[in-house]
Amino acid sequence: MHGGRGQAAPVRAAVDEQKVNLTELKSELAGAEAASHHRKIAELASAEFPGYELAYMIEYGVYGLANAVASE
């Protein structure tokens, strides 16, 4: 997988690395500031894909992923 930043990585390794990053932020993702974090993550993702016509779907994805990680 090549996400456009850094070195290319196998998908499994990239996913595992991101899970670790998200796990470290569980309290932030589920706390009082969760909504602002979700918006910021979605904004950053949307900026990387400016031609994506269904940008609101990115926010739905971020919300679901963050809640899933925070609830583990």
Q: How would you describe what is shown here?
A:
This protein has 72 residues and is mainly alpha-helical. It has a domain at 26-71. The protein is built from four helices and no strands. The chain has helices spanning 11-24, 26-30, 34-48, 55-71.
Q: Per the principal axes of the C-alpha atoms, what is the gross shape?
A: flat
Structural class: mainly alpha
Unreliably modeled segments? none
Roughly how much helix do the residues carry, as a percent range?
Answer: over 70%
Give me the Rg, rounded. Answer: 13 Å
| Helix and strand sequence | HHHH
Proportion of β residues?
Answer: under 5%
Number of H- or I-type helical stretches: 4
The N- and C-terminal alpha carbons lie at a distance of 25 Å
Biggest β-sheet: count, sense, barrel? none
Mean pLDDT value: 78
Using DSSP, what is the number of strands?
Answer: 0
Oligomeric state of shown chains = single chain
What characteristics describe this protein?
single chain; 72 residues; mainly alpha; flat
What layout of secondary structure does this protein have?
Blueprint: H1 11-24, H2 26-30, H3 34-48, H4 55-71
Helix pairs in contact: 3-4
A few lines on this structure:
By secondary structure, the protein is an all-alpha fold. Helices cover 71% and strands 0% of the residues.
